[in-house]
Write a structure and sequence with these properties.
- The protein is built from six helices and five strands.
- It has helices at 13-21, 48-62, 77-88, 125-134, 139-154, 162-178; strands spanning 2-3, 32-37, 69-75, 96-100, 117-124.
- The protein has a five-stranded mixed beta sheet, with helices on both faces.
- By secondary structure, the chain is α/β, with parallel strands linked by helices.
- It has one domain: 3-Layer(aba) Sandwich (Collagenase (Catalytic Domain)).
- Helix 2 (48-62) links the parallel strand 2 (32-37) and strand 3.
- The chain is 41% helix and 15% strand.
Length: 191
């Protein structure tokens, strides 16, 4: 699970906390989500879109986000490998990539409200399916986890060090519990 930098650089968890501290905690509208299917392989999973929508909604509620807009691209291994190579210098497929939107910049001297668009998430079908089988998990559970993981990256969460990883994983566990998805970080057979 990877987080690609935004075109203008990384947004740190501290920056995300600072910007959310200025906004009220309640949300007036749901998350607006555009799902783009780039690979016919996803047709095998008729529940994928509803799983993703529920996962993102639960993540937004748990993270107390403002109204947010994002796109999720349902891709394949070759598509995500090209992105991983171009943006992260890793010429191999991965399960999920997050591309946070660049912060809005005021063109005038006036203060500007942050854009509701928070970025894009790309999920690869083959890697997701392969990992679900290897880890003995239902595909939909693994997909929900990847959607939540990618969404939290868009909000500025990361796992670059142990403390940040524990913070992010703890929130993921809480969100996934609400979705009746077992702890994805528990040792095999512990659930």
């Amino acid at each position: 699970m990877s987080r690609a930098p935004s075109r203008s650089g990384k947004r740190t968890k501290k920056q995300a906390r600072k910007s959310s501290a200025r906004r009220p905690k309640s949300r007036t509208e749901p998350v607006k989500l555009e799902l783009v299917v780039k690979s016919a392989l996803w047709q095998k999973r008729r529940t994928a879109k509803s799983v993703i929508k529920k996962a993102i909604s639960a993540a937004a509620k748990a993270a107390s986000t403002q109204p947010a807009e994002l796109a999720i691209v349902l891709s394949n291994d070759s598509g995500i490998q090209a992105l991983n190579r171009d943006w992260r210098g890793k010429d191999q497929p991965t399960n999920v990539l997050s591309f946070p939107a660049a912060p809005a910049v005021a063109r005038s001297g006036k203060a500007q409200l942050p854009s509701p668009y928070i970025g894009d998430i790309v999920i690869a079908y083959q890697t997701t399916a392969r990992e679900a089988v290897a880890e003995g998990k239902p595909f939909d559970h693994h997909l929900a986890h990847l959607a939540v993981h990618g969404f939290l990256h868009l909000l500025g969460y990361d796992h670059e060090n142990d403390r940040d990883a524990e913070t992010m994983e703890s929130l993921e566990r809480r969100i996934l519990r609400r979705l009746a998805v077992p702890d994805p970080y528990a040792p095999r057979g512990a659930n």
